[in-house]
TrEMBL record:
Pfam families assigned to the protein according to its UniProt record, in alphabetical order: FAD_binding_6, NAD_binding_1
This protein's record includes keyword Cell inner membrane: no
Segments forming domain FAD-binding FR-type: 14-115
Enzyme class: oxidoreductase
Claim: Flavoprotein is one of the keywords in the record: yes
Domain of life: Bacteria
Catalyzed reactions per annotation: 2 reduced [2Fe-2S]-[ferredoxin] + NADP(+) + H(+) = 2 oxidized [2Fe-2S]-[ferredoxin] + NADPH
Entry's EC annotation: 1.18.1.2
BP terms from Gene Ontology: cellular response to oxidative stress; heme catabolic process
Keywords: FAD, Flavoprotein, NADP, Nucleotide-binding, Oxidoreductase
The protein's name in its UniProt record: ferredoxin--NADP(+) reductase
Length: 276
C-alpha cells in the first residue's frame, strides 16, 4: 500500500530555530514573562543568555539577547522581558500567546556563570529591573547552593510592582520540595532576599550601591562586612549601574573575573542602552 505524502512528512516548522510558546504572564504594562519549548539539544549553564526573536516585516529575523531565566534542569525555557513601546522586538514580542512560535538560536553564552567565580562562602546577586533574569535561573539551580553557603539576592526597581516577578519566584523557591528536602528549614537562611524600590514607598528602599556602601543591607540581614576572602558577586543591570556597583565592590577589595580567569565578581549588561 503506498504511503501517503501526509503520513511521511513531518509538520513543517514555519521558522528556522522555532520554539513554541507554552505560557505568558504579564506583570504590569511594561514587564512580562513567558515560557517556550526547549530544543532537545540545548545545554546551557544557569546564568547564560541566548538570542531570541521574531520575523521582521521584511522576513529578516529581529533577534535580541535574552538571559535564560529558568534553571538548566527545567525542560522548558523561561524568559523575563521588558516591553519597550517602540522597541523593534518587544513591541511585537509582548503580544505573543500560547501556541505561537518564536525564534531561538541555541547558542548560550555569558559571564554570569558559577564557573567564572572562585569558591567562597557568600554569593551576592545584584540586579536592577530585568537584570534579575539570569539570577532567576541561578537561584533555582541547586548547584548554586552546593557551591555557596549563602546567597543574597538584592533587586532594585523604581516601583514596587516591578519587584513582583522576583518576589513570587523567591516565595515559590522557599516552598520548593527539592530545595527544602536538601536544606530543610535552613533554606530561608541560605537564600536571603533584599528587594528595594527607589521611587515609591516600600518596606525596603534605596539603590544597591547606597545600601552596600552604607552597610544598611548588612545590618538589616545581620551579615558581616563584604570581604574578598568570603564574598563573591554577580552584577546585572544598566551600564551606569554596572559601573557604579563594580566600583563599590572594588572598594571592598573584590576583583572582576571572567570565564577564563575566575575571580571574586563578574558583570553583564541587562540591556544595551541608548547610544552605546
Ligand atoms: P531595543 O532597540 O533593543 O532597545 C531599545 C531601548 O530600550 C534600549 O536602547 C534601552 O534604552 C531600552 N531597553 C532595552 N532593553 C531593556 C531592558 N531589559 N530594561 C530596560 N530598558 C531596556 N531584555 C529583557 O527584557 N530580558 C532579558 O533577559 C534580557 N537579557 C539581555 C542580556 C544581554 C546580554 C543583553 C545585551 C541584553 C538583554 N536584554 C534583555 C535586552 C534585549 O536584548 C533587548 O534590548 C530588549 O528585548 C528590547 O528589544 P527591542 O528590540 O524592543 O528594543
Ligand atoms: P533611581 O530611581 O535612584 O535612579 P533604571 O530604570 O533607570 O534603569 O533604574 C532601575 C533601578 O536602578 C532604579 O531603582 C534606579 O534607581 C537604579 N539605578 C539606576 N542607575 C543606578 C546606578 N548608577 N547605581 C545604582 N542604582 C541605579
Amino acid at each position: 500500500i503506498p504511503v501517503t505524502e501526509a503520513a511521511t512528512t513531518k509538520p513543517a516548522k514555519t521558522l528556522p530555530d522555532a520554539q513554541t510558546v507554552t505560557g505568558v504572564k504579564h506583570w504590569n504594562d511594561h514587564l512580562f514573562s513567558f515560557r517556550v519549548t526547549r530544543p532537545a539539544s540545548l545545554r546551557f549553564r544557569s546564568g547564560e543568555f541566548v538570542m531570541i526573536g521574531l520575523p521582521g516585516d521584511n522576513g529578516k529575523p529581529i533577534l535580541r539577547a535574552y538571559s535564560i531565566a529558568s534553571p538548566n534542569w527545567d525542560d522548558e525555557l523561561e524568559f523575563y522581558s521588558i516591553k519597550v513601546p517602540d522597541g523593534p522586538l518587544t513591541s511585537k514580542l509582548q503580544h505573543i500567546k500560547e501556541g505561537d512560535e518564536i525564534i531561538l538560536r541555541p547558542k548560550p553564552v555569558g559571564t554570569l556563570v558559577l564557573d567564572a567565580l572562585l569558591p567562597g562562602k557568600r554569593l551576592w546577586f545584584l540586579a536592577t529591573g530585568t537584570g534579575l533574569a539570569p539570577f532567576a535561573s541561578l537561584m533555582r539551580d541547586p548547584e548554586t547552593y552546593e557551591r555557596y553557603e549563602q546567597v543574597v539576592m538584592m533587586h532594585t526597581c523604581r516601583t514596587a510592582d516591578e519587584l513582583n516577578y522576583g518576589r513570587e519566584l523567591v516565595e515559590n523557591l522557599r516552598n520548593d520540595p527539592l530545595l527544602s528536602e536538601l536544606y530543610g528549614d535552613d533554606f530561608a537562611n541560605r537564600l536571603l532576599y533584599y528587594p528595594t524600590t527607589t521611587r515609591e514607598e516600600s518596606p525596603l528602599m534605596g539603590r544597591i550601591t547606597d545600601n552596600l556602601t552604607s552597610g544598611k543591607v548588612l545590618e538589616d540581614l545581620g551579615l558581616p562586612p563584604v570581604s574578598p576572602e568570603t564574598d563573591r558577586a554577580m552584577i546585572c543591570g544598566s551600564l551606569a549601574f554596572n559601573v557604579d556597583v563594580k566600583a563599590v565592590l572594588e572598594g571592598f577589595g573584590l576583583r572582576e573575573g571572567a570565564n577564563s580567569e575566575p575571580k571574586e565578581f563578574v558583570v553583564e549588561k541587562a540591556f544595551v542602552g541608548e547610544g552605546i
